[in-house]
UniProtKB/TrEMBL annotation:
Cross-referenced PROSITE patterns: FLAGELLA_BB_ROD (PS00588)
Annotated protein name in UniProt: Flagellar hook-associated protein 1
Species in which this protein is naturally found: Shewanella sedimentimangrovi
Similarity remark: Belongs to the flagella basal body rod proteins family.
SUPFAM superfamilies: Phase 1 flagellin
Amino acid sequence: MTIDLLNIARTGVMASQSQLGVTGNNIANVNTEGYHRQVVNQTTYESQRLGNSFYGTGAYVASVKRVYNEYAARELRLGVTAQAEAQTSYNKMSELDQLFSQVGQAIPNSLNDLFAGINNLADLPADLGIRGSVLTSASQMAASVNQMQAQLHGQMTQTNDQIEAITDRINEISKELANINQELMKTGGADNQLLDKQDALINELSEFAQVNVIPLETGAKSIMLGGAVMLVSGEVAMTMGTSVGDPYPDELKLSATSGFQSLNINPSRLGGQLGALYDFRDNNLIPAGNELGQLALGIADAFNTAQAQGFDMNGNVGQDLFLEINDPLMSNGRVGEFSTNAGSANLRVNIDDVQALTGSAYELTFTAPGTYELKDLDSGNITPLTLSGTELSGGAGFSIHLDSGAFADGDRFEIRPTAGAAAGLQVVMTDPKGIAAAAPKITAASGNSGNTQVQITAITDRSAANFPGYGSELTFSINTAANTYDVTAADGTALATGVSYTPPSISAFGFTMDVSSTAAATDSFTLDLSFAPGDNSNAIAMAKLSDSKLMNGGKSTLVDVFENTKQDVGSHTKAAEVRVGSADAIYQQAFSRMESESGVNLDEEAANLLRFQQSYQASARIMQTAQQIFDTLFSSVR
């Protein structure tokens, strides 16, 4: 046996040709996104023994592999997820911030215009033109609140559309990955092009949610979302989708389906764009709407209460300026019933004290036989509620009423006391004469306990005998323990003694008043219900509402409620912007590391191209030399 020089040259030429082909492919794909640089694993043939020595027999290409680092790839996927989540949060918060800064600015402006109109009314309380202007300002203010709520609803719709679009794309990717897995299982995971496509799809999937990749022995990869949902298992793909929210239908929930099995997904564990959209919806958009509803309730209650404390131009007790705060149009959405409830309880939430409202949402839970607990979803604080008849009391400014049906053990309800109010706010007064600029004069005796308050609720007959007026005031001495009262005229004449009444109303001498008491006492009040068209005392009191701390337990004015929400949105937007910068830096670091290992370096490939070209030419030269040797050998034996 002799050394096969021609065969050695042939293997060298073929190996160099393969090297040139792979290098050329790297150069051609330098700008191909997701492409991983490929390298040739070249090795030598087994040596051959001649005499006492071993001689090589050439080289061959054992495999063509792509340069891939699983740790770098995982770091990149995490970077992609964090960047997508931060950018989505910032984009959504920026939109909300612009709403409050631009569209929302009409709310404090229109509220200030309303108070300016009331100040003008205080100067000329009998001017019908000014009164009409006040009603117009009130309508414009209500419209600005309605418009802001409509914009927030539009944000909810847009967010739902984005969630649905992402789930559709996730389903497309999962099907493609399942098909790729099927092909890779046929080749044992050796098709570099399919592997690159697989990684590109996984990286795209990482934008939507956090991805965990589980390599399989077959060459395929199983994919988990958020560490909880097996999206792709081998060649089987799960389908993601959305369904109506629970307990609020327009707040879509996320689910995954495989065959006939369906699983609800907790979006807070997903991260990425999906996690950011749900976080924005639940922790920013919905609370902003609740706080806007709190403002609407505050406006309606403040002005309606002020109206009830005065007289209109006809001398009657002022009627509501805005829709009553517990009207069905103002209370739509206060109660959400979970679909898992076994009971038939039909609940209604009634606002009892607007000042005590916080804008929070709550979860009501019933545990048999009689435990009712209210959990503040913002703070986590749990408050036990007391059932009295059909009323559950103990909420912060509101009570829950069981209108029909019954609770079952484990029943849950979400309570949003301020929901719906911003959409329902509207002016119900149509006659400008109805604005109550005048006010009755009620003087409490200096020795009163302070436990009792009275309010005029109706004027039925100003011509009635002994109707209290200027110079003919009446003094009512009210015993709230016995529910009786005495009446004394201005000259000291006793007009009534020990008259019984049914709480809370006393009707006498052409008017009706309500009596409220926190403890039993006997207190006296002197009433002057005279009326003059030029009286502006109640208009002055109404104008002072602009600076009165009526909200959040006496800590905020009406405008403060809106401005606090606006500041919270702005603060969250700034924080989201900072997170974008941090996430970008992390992503760029991971991307650079990935590129340094798997990316194509043109300088390196150019050097390889020259090196493999030279080895190809050298092998070809060996082949030529071998041919010349054979020719010489044949010539010598002719």
